Amino acid sequence: MSEANIGESLATGNRYYGSLKVRSFENRDYMGEAAANDIAAALRARLQTQNQVRMIFAAAPSQADMLKMLCAAPDIDWRRVTAFHMDEYIGLSLDHPARFGLWLNRHIFNQLPFGQVHRIMPGDDASAEAKRYAALLEEAPIDFICLGIGVNGHIAFNDPPVALFDDPETVKIVVLDDVCRQQQVDDKCFATFNDVPEKAITLTIPCLMSGQQLFCVVPGAFKQNAVRDTLYGEITTACPASILRNHPSCTLYLDKDSDPDA
Questions:
Q1: Cβ distance 86 to 203 under 8 Å?
Q2: 12 pLDDT above the threshold of 90
Q3: Which of 54, 68, 233, 259 is 20 to 30 A (C-alpha) from 48?
Q4: What is the rounded CA–CA span in Å between residue 189 and residue 59?
Q5: Beta carbons of 262 and 28 less than 8 angstroms apart
Q6: Which residues form a coiled coil (predicted)?
């Protein structure tokens, strides 16, 4: 059975909300496997038609199952893939285990022979780093983006108070809202709320929406309300992820716990 057929057999239902395709699965394992299969198939197809692929990854526990399966996917020439990540805390030491760059090192960047990996490194001048990273992203189109949705509906670190659908910037510095900071504790990335940095560098919503194909992986019951608002609410920055309904090629992967209709 082909990977595509395996993915369809795992799904409990596929449906559309605007342009957004939703694939729902009985459990998190099936969801991660199907998402990884779809991403791997897209990579193979794109690498047959162009020499290089540019790809952005989210760093979050919600992505771990998919990334593990993607690392095991055969017949992908990762040497022709350039990788980016979509956000990073400001103020953490270079070796802090919660840094998103280090998390991605552990889960994918150091597992595969990427041609290039561009990491966000805020250092002592976050503004300069935001400009540097924006210039790298703007060098050529972004082919694929692997992302998630936060409990407050954020995509990357575009929390409702700072999210702009028409943001003029590609990368910017943001203040994290309390809901987002608490999620980092609930995800066991930090021991206490006060340990979570107040500021971060993030790719903006227009930057994310510029990706040619988006794969959004969102497991877990604590994400169900955000998924419901994404699918059924108004398209508004009160739920930044709602804008995904306007993307021409975005697939949202859910398990039975995150799916409000399961």
A1: yes
A2: no
A3: 68
A4: 11
A5: no
A6: none
Best CA proximity match to 44, nearest among 11, 81, 7, 10 = 81
Q: How confident is the model at residue 14 (pLDDT cuts 50, 70, 90)?
A: confident
Long-range contacts of 134-139 (CB under 8 A, 24+ apart): 134/169, 134/170, 134/171, 136/84, 137/84, 137/170, 137/171, 137/203, 137/207, 138/170
By DSSP bridging, strand 199-203 and strand 87-89 are antiparallel
What is the mean predicted confidence (pLDDT) over 69-93? 97
Helix axis angle, 64-71 to 28-49, nearest 10°: 50
| Domains observed in the chain | 17-148+207-216+243-253 (3.40.50.1360)
SS (H, E, C) 119-157: CCCCCCCHHHHHHHHHHHHCCCCCCEEEECCCCCCCECC
